[in-house]
## 1
Amino acid sequence: MRVIILGLALAAVLAVLAGCADMQDITVPNLAPQTYVALADSVRNPTVYIQTLNWWGDDKDGEVVGFEYRWSSDPGLPGCGLPADWTFTEENSKVFHLPVTDSIGTHSLEVRAMDNEGAVDETPATLRLPVTNNPPVVRIYDRGALPDTTFPALRIRWVGDDPEGNETILGYKLWLDGNEQNARVLSPADTTVSLVPADFEDRFGTRTLNLVAIDSGCDTSAVVTYTWYIKETTGDLLVVDDITSAHAGNAKSDKFYAEALGSCVAAYSELALERYGGSVSYPHNFPELVKMFETVIWYSDPLRPGTESLEEMDDVYPSYVQSGGNFLVVSLGAIGTDGALTDSVGFEVFGIDGLYMRNGSSDFDCKRWVIYPNAGVGLDTLKVSGLYSGVECMRPTAETTPLFHIPPGVAAADTVDYYLGVLNSYGGGKAGLLTFPMSRSDSYGNAQSEFCKVINLMLQ
Ligand SMILES: [Ca+2]
Ligand SMILES: [Ca+2]
Ligand SMILES: [Ca+2]
C-alpha cells in the first residue's frame, strides 16, 4: 500500500515537472495597460485654470503600477513648471495650476498607464482643457503719502488681490530701476520689504522701485512703481525732526535745534519727517536707517504726547543702543501717559525706576519753571518760558546720570526732586531722555549751549 501511494506521488511530481518544462516554451506577450482620464465638467467651455484631474488604468494580464503624464500648451503660453516631458506618478489624481497669461489658454494633457512589466499604454488618454485666469493686482500701501526723499533705506508695504482668490497669489517680484533680471522674489506672505544701503549700491539720486504680483497661473499684475530720491548721509549723527508745520511751534523748534547743532556738531544728517514725506514715517526704515549713524537725536519738543512719530522707534532703539548707538530724545511724550515708547522697555534703556506725578496734580504742567542742573557734569540752570502740559518726571536708577530736575518746594507739600533729564549707559551705547521742552527753556539764553553739553556728555 505504501509503495503504491509513493509511486502515485512520484508520478504526479514528474507530471508537474513535465508540465513546467512545456510552459517555458510558450511565450505569451505582455498586454499593455489601457488608460482613462476623467473630468467632471465639460471641457468645451473654458474652465478655471486650477484643475484637479483624475485618471486610472486597467491591465488585463498584470497590474497598473503608475502613470506617466505630460502637457503641451498653446504657443505663447508660458511653461511655468508644467512638465512637457513624460513624468511618472503613482497617484491617480493631481492638482494642476495651468498657466494662462492672456485671460484664456488651452493646454493638453496626455496620460498613459504603466504596468508591472514597465509597458505603457501606446494610446494615451488625452484631455484638452481651455482655461481662464485673471491677472492679480498689486498696490503699494500709502502710495500717495510715501516720502519723495529717503536716506538709502526704505521700507515699503503693499497689498495683493486676485480675482481667483488671494490665496492664488504665488508671490511678488521686486526690482530697482531696470534691473529686472536680478529681481527679488518674495513669498505671498511677504508684503513688506526692507531695502538697506547695500541694495542701492551707492547710487544716490532718483531711483524707481518696481513691483509685480504673480499668481499660480503665472499671470502677472501690472507693474506698479514708486520713484523717489535717495539722499546720501552726512556725518555720524542723525537728527530727526518730528514736529511738523501743522503745529504752531514748529518753526521755533526747528530754528532752536538747527542753531544749537550748528554750533556744536561739525556735520550731521537731518531727517525732517515733514519734508521727507510727511504723513507716514515707516518708509524711512528706522531699523536700518539708524545703523548708518553712531548717534541719533530725536526731537518732538514741545508737542503734546501722542502727536509725534516717535513710536516708530519703539522696537528699534533698545537694540541700537545695546549695540553701541547713542540715542537722545527730547519729547514730552516719549514715555508715560500717551507715551510713544513702551514704558517698561524705556525704563530699562533710559535707566529709570519709575515715573511719578507732581504732588497733588493730575497733569504735570511745566509753567515757567526754573530747571536745576546736575552741576557735577557741568550743566547750568535753565528757565522755561511758557506753559506746557504732559511733562513726565523720572526716578533715575542709582547708575543713571541725572541731568536736570526741579527741586521740591516749588509747590506746597512737594518733597521730592522731579527729574526731567537722564543719561544712561546701556549696553555699548548711551540713552538720554529730556522730558521738558528744551527749545522753550531759553529764558537765560543758554538752552542751546546746555543742549550741546548734553550731546557732548552722550558722546564722551
Ligand atoms: Ca500587462
Ligand atoms: Ca488670477
Ligand atoms: Ca520741523
Note: Confidence is low (pLDDT under 50) at residues 1-21.
## 2
Amino acid sequence: MSGKFIVFEGVEGSGKTTQIQQIQSWLQRCRLLDPATRIVTTREPGGTALGQQLRQILLQSTDDLIQDRTELLLYAADRAQHVEAYLKPLLAAGAIVLCDRYTDSTVAYQGYGRQLDQILIEQLNQIATGGLVSDLTFWLDVEVELGLERAQGRAAHDRIERADLSFHRRVQQGFTQLAAAHPQRIVRIDASLSPEAVSQQIQQVLQARLQDWYGIEFA
Ligand SMILES: Nc1ncnc2c1ncn2[C@@H]1O[C@H](COP(=O)(O)OP(=O)(O)OP(=O)(O)O)[C@@H](O)[C@H]1O
Ligand SMILES: [Mg+2]
C-alpha cells in the first residue's frame, strides 16, 4: 500500500514547523486511521544525514560565499538523497509523511527570489524527485513582514532569512503564482491567525482528503 506525501510551504516564519508538529500529533490521535499507519515528519533541506550536512552549508555559510546556481544544485542534491533514501521507502511502506518544504520552495526561492531560469528549475526538480509529487501541499500564506517578524523572535538568523525584503517579496509572489497554477495540489491557508486557528483550517482540509484517500468518515 502506498502512503501519502503532504508538504507544508510558505515564507520564513509562516508557521510550517509549528503546524507540522501540531498536525502530526493530531493525526496520531486520530482514531479513525489504522493504528499501524506511521505519521512521520521530515524537512528539506536536511531530511537525511547527508542532507543535514548540506543544510549546514546552505543556511550557515557566509552570505556571499554560495553562488546562486551552486545554491540551486545543493538544494537539488539534498532533495535527490531525501527522495530516494527516505521518502520513497517510507511511502512504499504506507506512511503518512509530513514534509517541511519541497519543490515549490525551489521554484519560489531560486526561481522567483534569485531569478534563475524557471525551465532549468523545473528540469532539476524533475531529476531530483524522480517524479515524486506531493499528494497535497499546504501553502501557509502570511505577509512577508509578519513572517520575518515572527522568525526574528528566534535566536539565530540563517543566510536566507538575512536576504533583503525585496527577495522575500518575490518569493511570496512565487508561492502566489504556484497556488494559482496548481489549485488541486496546493491549498492556501490563512497563516496570519493564531496557531490554533491555522491548525483548524488545515485539519478541515485534511479530514476531507483522508475521507477520500482512506474511505473513513469523520463525524
Ligand atoms: N500562527 C502563529 N501566530 C504567531 N506566532 C506564530 C504562529 N505560528 C508560529 N509562530 C511563531 O513564529 C515563529 C516562526 O514559526 P515557525 O518556526 O513555525 O515558522 P516556519 O515557517 O517553520 O519558519 P522557517 O521558514 O524560518 O523555518 C516561531 O517562534 C513560532 O512559535
Ligand atoms: Mg521552520
Note: The first helix runs from residue 16 to 29.
